[in-house]
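Reopening this one. Same input as before:
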Amino acid sequence: MFLLRAAEGPRWMAVFLLLAALCCLFSPVVMVKHENFKTCEQSGFCKRNRQFADDAASSSWVSPYALDPASITFKDGQLAATVLKTLKEGEEKVRLPLIVTFLESGVARVTLDEEKRQKGDIILRGDSKARKERYNEASNWAIVGGLDAATGAALSAEAEAGYTKVFYGDGGKHQALIRHHPFSIEFQRDGETQIKFNDKGLLNLEHWRQKVEKVEKVKVEEKKEGEEEKKEGEEENKEQEPQGEDESTWWDEAFGGNTDTKPRGPEAIALDITFPGYEHVYGIPEHATGLSLKTTRGGDGAYSEPYRLYNADVFEYELDSPMTLYGAIPLMQAHRKGSTVGVFWMNAAETWVDIVKTKSITNPFSLGLLGKTDTETHWISESGIMDVFVFLGPTPQDITRQYGELTGFTALPQSFAIAYHQCRWNYVTDEDVKDVDRKFDKFKIPYDVIWLDIEYTQEKKYFTWDPLTFVNPTKMNEHLDKRDRKLVAIIDPHIKNTNDYPVIDQMKSKGLAVKNKDGNDYEGWCWPGSSMWIDAFNPAAITWWKTLFKYDSFKGTASNTFIWNDMNEPSVFNGPETTMPKDNLHHGNWEHRDVHNVNGMTFHNATYEALLERKKGEIRRPFALTRSFYSGSQRVGAMWTGDNLAEWSHLHASIPMVLNQGISGFPFAGADVGGFFGNPSKELLTRWYQAGIYYPFFRGHAHIDTRRREPYIAGAPYTEIITQALRLRYQLLPAWYTAFHEASTTGAPIVRPNFYIHPEDENGFAIDDQLYIGSTGLLAKPVTQEGADSVSVYIADDQPYFDYFDYTLYQGAGHHTVAAPLEKIPLLMQGGHIIPRRDRPRRSSGLMKYDPFTLVVVLDKDGNASGTLYVDDGATFDYQKGAYIHRRFGFDGKRSALTSIGLGTKGTKTDAYLKAMAKVRVEKIIVVNAPSAWEGKTEVVVSEEGAKESARRKKVAFEYFAKDGKKAAWAVVRDPKVGVGKGWKIDFS
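Same output, byte for byte:
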């Protein structure tokens, strides 16, 4: 967010208001201020390690790291050893404890620490209160399971000179080949190397050394011309120029008027990780770039900067850039035909990742392909231990599942959270909120949630309401609740530092704020002006934070009020790179540099816990949106891509950004529909809504200086077209909710790129402008170009695909032109799937709770189809006790029969839930690509479990529609009267 503040005085105010009005007439240009953010050259540790890589490129380079074979021990699936770093001749070698753990899941974990720091055997500069160890607690925040060591892992019985080999994984099909000198590791699957550590010799752990003030005494022997004569023997002190390594940023580093003191000195950790034979790598969000990551060492179409992971408030970020954004997930996947592998670099400090792709020639005489492409990556973090997880796949599904087992699966949200959210900065009064709500009803536009940005507070003091504009928030919430709608209010981590504000008084008195390097409460500048930041690393701070959300504390909120955490990178307006100084101190005296990327998640976690405990006995699934995130944030809420622009290019970029979040374990993602900054044209707004219905998190949002753009304002025909898009989202909510359930149990993305669905299709590995919704077979290609009236949809297989609306057939691998006039949403259905939906239009999702279902059965080329449906109460945690319906539907082409089979397991609340849902039925079945043999049929036979004898086999009306040109034949069974929670069978033969 960005706000111009008017100068005081009536004349200046008049000028300001005039300028503000004029600004509203124009869309802003890209205004990212590059000078506010470091390049690698300006980041000391990144510059040093890039230079280290350049030095290592020489043919004579030998890595100074070697594993001491005499130190190796192996027990209970864990190998421990010592890696020795050789320094200059005559100097003691640096001892680096190595642990390689082989997990039951088939994942390997490699950690490397520094013995001196580990033991606290170092001296901090000055009077620093910082910890002496390398930061080793990122796993406390990121990891929640999957760490059981593999009892079947074993050292190879065959000793190999200079190597240690470990067999692990299912049936020992994985191998870790550990080279002693120079130290490196190859990870193999079925005897083929998939991932290499330190193959290029770029491992570089900057060991502790004490700062030595190098001063040289220089005797003045002769007077230079123009100098004043000095007395004989007069001496001057002259600081010696550093020799060898560049020490200029070892101890202090200045940027943007701030000096970062480094009491532990240089402590970066870097490693090269190579993916041999893999041309495409994905992941490491968040960046405004394509799904398949580019190289970063210059050249045509490449970046010259590494991808940066350093959570920051980047104002009006630019596209096609490796520049850092709001969140960091250091998970990278490499993909080739038939194989997906990955690494998770668990480090919470500032991190840079270089990517280089090299082609190796395997047969110089070949007239076809000359070789394979290797992707070489170089990971560089400022501090902390090296802690890397290795995933050997071999499928994309294996990677997302194993990563999810470690960091947690996506939280299953309340059902309202996956419907449409209406937001802007700001709805100005409680009456304004109610008026917007009424107008959505007046125009019959569905929505579920309305949001409040910072202006609802009294003078930017969180947990308060402005008494002049939000006079009766309780009545406002009651108004929304009658329509089964929700309110989301923003709460940020900066607390206004002012008098007569109990929240800041309590935070100070309890010592719960982040500290500066001297151990005093850190004071910075944010929306309220002078502010302090809650230290959510402190358990006592979390305990206190939870009390603030209780209904009798945060008066005016109710059970339909939920929370938005913004600015939690943290954003500090007067801080270096718009964030906190790195030498600030958090709970346990860890420096901010150690924990920066996980900071936003700790605050998000605290808010989630607070929402769980608002009222004793009232437990609902929380909804908490975050802007800043790290691995594990998916466990507690949703994210969005931050402050985008109302431009076609930003609409286009949102698709790969959301897809990348999904394959990186945080699929509950979206982008501000319409663009946050600027005023979209009516065409752009309409197309953005048509794309936004495919974001897992679907919210319209806008800057305070933009014109109002609620869907009903656009006018004909745009309002009607946007409304139809919103109704499509609501119609398909059963499919979306089922996809969310799958994500919450398997880690699978909610929206999926082509390579995830078709991992064998090499032509589709870089495609990132279309997506599949869960396991439904729904393939969407949003229109992201101005004036377009068609799109080119890529089909990867030979299955038939059908237009969702009129069943037009598209078949054959390759690109297909699909008509897309403004009123048309390009959406295809892949043959072989059964799609659940609810067809009755409602004004909010809560009102659909007991509506009947429609099943769309899309037959594949062999006449078969299958699909699932998951339903629960959409609000509580009762599903964990069996209160849900989970069915698998299958159509068998040979038997010409559709069946419903239960997938759930019974719990203590199963019977009560099934009783509550007993009257919810399947009211319609549509079969697309219906066999011609059905033509002339007028009825089908329906059998249902538990039905009375007379109704156990009943005949139901059936209608067949023949093929019409390119439009497939289809058939419909109207109201078979089968319960959605029961087993049943429909015979079409």
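So the earlier flakiness isn't reproducible anymore. For the record, The two ends are 61 Å apart (CA to CA).
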